[in-house]
Amino acid sequence: MNIWNTALDGLEWFTKHGFLEMLFGFGVLGLIRRAFPRKYEHLHVNVTSGGPVSVPPQSAAQSLQIHLSNAGLVNLYIARAYFCAKQRHWWTLWLWNKPTQLRIHPKSDRIVDKDAFELKFRPGPASPFTEYETLIHPGHPHRESTWLALESPVKQHLIDQRRCGVLYIEYATSDHQGVHKVNV
Q1: How far apart are CA 9 and CA 32, in angstroms?
Q2: Same domain, 47 and 116
Q3: CATH number at residue 151
Q4: Are residues 26 and 47 in the same domain?
Q5: Vertex 171, ends 173 and 138: CA angle to 5°?
Q6: Are 87 and 159 part of one and the same domain?
Q7: Would you say residue 20 has pLDDT above 90?
Q8: Which pTM was predicted?
Q9: One domain, residues 48 and 30
Q10: What distances in angstroms separate CA 150 from CA 21, 120, 131, 141, 177, one per listed residue?
Q11: Average pLDDT of the residues in 175-180
Q12: What's the domain count of the chain?
């Protein structure tokens, strides 16, 4: 019983001096930071309508081309990239995602737990898209590209209005890491 009294006395001391409120505040700040992804301000994303691509065992007539470039001063390591063809709208009070008009090819690789489609990169200029991760060096000539196979062509006005879906890029640099989220 003496242990419980000591523990309660310690808890009372923490409460009296405000340490419990500080711990609670740090916990809330941690949750807020996790809820709002930290963007990498030097990552530039350009999305265009693309042409035919191969999706084993066949090919798709249309695609969504995604080009990434690093305008920062340090290397940008991309650990994973995926695309979700759903968006949140203000009239749903951000409670659920609404499907977009974009129709993804059924043979595209799906990530079930995220309800998204994975994007792959090339390990070399003449090889197929097989790598989940890539490194983008700083500067304009160093770009990485990937694509997402579609069933039907994407309309340019949907790309311009950013109503195709959401692109998530899990990244790391020498000083921080996070998830870069872009409405496409």
Answers
A1: 31
A2: yes
A3: 2.60.40
A4: no
A5: 50
A6: yes
A7: no
A8: 0.75
A9: no
A10: 51, 15, 20, 28, 30
A11: 87
A12: 2
Q: Which of 20, 40, 7 is nearest to 173 (CA)?
A: 40
Distance between CA atoms of 140 and 142, rounded to whole angstroms?
A: 5
**What's the pLDDT tens digit per position in 94-135?**
667 778 888 898 888 899 998 899 999 987 666 678 889 999
- At 33 the pLDDT is 61
The type of residue at 129 is F
8 Å CB contact between 132 and 120 = yes
Return d(Cα 138, Cα 13) in angstroms, integer: 52
Tokens 């949140």 found at: 88
**pLDDT band for position 38 (cuts 50, 70, 90):** low
Same domain, 25 and 93: no
62 and 25 in a single domain? The answer is no
Percent of the chain residues topping a pLDDT of 70: 88
Question: How far is the C-alpha of 64 from the C-alpha of 7, rounded, in Å?
Answer: 59
Asked if 31 and 48 sit in the same domain, the reply is no
Residue 93 has pLDDT above 90, yes or no: no
CB under 8 Å to 173, separation ≥6 — which residues?
40, 72, 74, 75, 76, 77
SS3 168: strand
Give the bridge partners for 15, in sequence order: none
Whole-number Å distance between alpha carbons of 151 and 52: 10
Check whether residue 26 and residue 60 sit in a common domain: no
Q: Domain range holding 21? A: 2-35
